[in-house]
Specification:
Largest sheet: 8 strands, mixed
Helix content: 25-40%
Shape: globular
Number of strands: 12
CATH class of one domain: Alpha Beta
Distance between the termini: 27 Å
Number of helices: 11
Radius of gyration: 21 Å
Strand order of the largest sheet: 6-7-8-3-9-10-12-11
C-alpha cells in the first residue's frame, strides 16, 4: 500500500481523554469514572490510513467517536483544519462535519429502515445545503455508481439489500459531502467473510481516487495490515505502540503487541502448526481503577519493579529518518 511519508498533518490528537462518570444512589452522585480513553496523542497524515487496533474495551471506538465529536471529550485537543474540534460550539461543529464523516460498524442498524436509499444518501447534502435539488439527485446517482450500486435502486429500502450492499450505502452517505477524513469503526466485522474483501478493496480504491484519509478502527489485524500505512495499538485507554505497518507487524516492540499479533492465524498449515501463541495471564484491569505504573504490568512477562511504579511514555525506539517514528510505551522495549 502507498505510504504517507512527508505528508501534511490532517488531524492532531493531543492528550485526548474520554471519561464516563459512575453514578450511584438516589441523587446519582458521581463516585468514580470509567477512563475509556486516558491520554491518547497521535498525528493523522493527509492521505494515509491509520489502523487503530486492540482488544474489546481498549477505547479504540471511543477514540474514533470523540475525534468527530460524536462523543464529547473530557479533555484534550483534536486539531482539524487548524481548529480545535473539541472546543467548537454546535453551529461551528455542524459546519465542520461535512469535512469529516463516519462509517459505522453495523450496516443493519445504522440505516433508517423507513427511508429509501436515495433519501439516506441525499440527507447530508440537504443538511449542509450543498447544490440545487437537481444537483443533489445527480450526486446521489453518482455516489451509488462510485460504491458499486445500481442507481436504479434509488427508491428501494435498506431491508432489500444484503449486508455488503448496506455498508456500501453507508459509505456513499459518508462520501456525499466530499469529506477529507473518514473514521471507519469496524466497517467489515458484521459482514460475511466472502464480502469483507470487496468492501476493504472498495475503500482502498476510493482513498486513491478521492484523496481520502482514514482512521480504521478494527480488531481484524489481517485487514489492518492489508489497508493501513501505519498502525496504533491501544491497551486500556492508551496507545502502547505506534509506527509504520510493516515494522509493527514484523518486529513489534511492545509485549502486548507481540501477544496480540501472535493470535493471527495463517493459511499455511505448516506455519500454523509452528506458530507460537503468546497467551496472556490474568484479566484486563478495570478501566475505572487502572493499575499504577505501566497499565500492562499485571499481565506482562517482562514486568519489573520500575513497571509497577513508573508510567512509561511513548518514545521513539527506531523509526527511520525518512519516515514517521516508531513509538513504544515500554520500559523494556529494547529487550522485546
Amino acid at each position: 500500500m502507498r505510504t504517507a511519508e512527508h505528508k501534511d498533518v490532517l488531524v492532531r490528537v493531543e492528550d485526548l481523554k474520554v471519561h464516563f462518570p459512575i453514578l450511584r444512589g438516589l441523587l446519582k452522585r458521581q463516585v468514580g469514572a470509567v477512563r475509556a480513553v486516558d491520554g491518547v496523542s497521535f498525528d493523522l497524515f493527509q492521505g494515509e490510513t491509520l489502523g487503530l487496533v486492540g482488544e474489546s474495551g481498549c477505547g479504540k471506538s471511543t477514540t474514533g467517536l470523540a475525534m468527530l465529536r460524536l462523543l464529547d471529550p473530557t479533555s484534550g485537543r483534536i486539531v482539524f483544519g487548524g481548529r480545535d474540534v473539541a472546543s467548537l460550539d454546535q453551529r461551528e461543529l455542524r459546519a465542520s462535519r461535512k469535512h469529516m464523516q463516519m462509517v459505522f460498524q453495523d450496516p443493519y442498524s445504522s440505516l433508517n429502515p423507513r427511508m429509501t436509499v436515495g433519501s439516506i444518501i441525499i440527507e447530508p447534502l440537504n443538511v449542509h445545503k450543498i447544490g440545487t435539488p437537481a444537483e443533489r439527485r445527480g450526486r446521489v446517482q453518482e455516489l451509488m455508481r462510485l460504491v458499486g450500486l445500481n442507481p436504479s435502486f434509488i427508491n428501494r429500502y435498506p431491508h432489500e439489500f444484503s449486508g455488503g450492499q448496506r455498508q456500501r450505502i453507508g459509505l456513499a452517505r459518508a462520501l456525499a459531502t466530499n469529506p477529507s477524513l473518514i473514521v471507519a469503526d469496524e466497517p467489515i466485522s458484521a459482514l460475511d467473510v466472502s464480502i469483507q474483501a470487496q468492501v476493504v478493496n472498495l475503500m482502498a480504491d476510493l482513498r486513491g481516487q478521492l484523496g481520502l484519509t482514514y482512521l480504521m478502527v478494527s480488531h481484524d489485524l489481517s485487514m489492518v495490515r492489508y489497508i493501513s500505512d501505519r498502525v496504533a495499538v491501544m491497551y486500556l485507554g492508551r496507545i502502547v505502540e505506534l509506527g509504520r505497518r510493516d515494522p509493527v507487524f514484523d518486529t513489534p516492540r511492545h509485549p502486548y503487541t507481540r501477544a496480540l499479533l501472535s493470535a493471527i492465524p495463517t493459511p499455511n498449515p505448516k506455519r500454523e502448526r509452528e506458530r507460537r501463541r503468546i497467551v496472556l495471564q490474568g484479566d484486563v484491569p478495570n478501566p475505572a481503577n487502572p493499575p499504577s505504573g505501566c497499565r500492562f504490568h499485571p499481565r506482562c512477562p517482562l514486568a519489573t519493579d520500575v513497571c509497577r511504579e513508573a508510567d512509561p511514555a511513548l518514545r521513539n525506539i527506531g523509526g527511520l529518518p525518512d519516515g514517521p517514528p516508531h513509538l513504544v510505551a515500554c520500559h523494556h522495549a529494547e529487550n522485546v
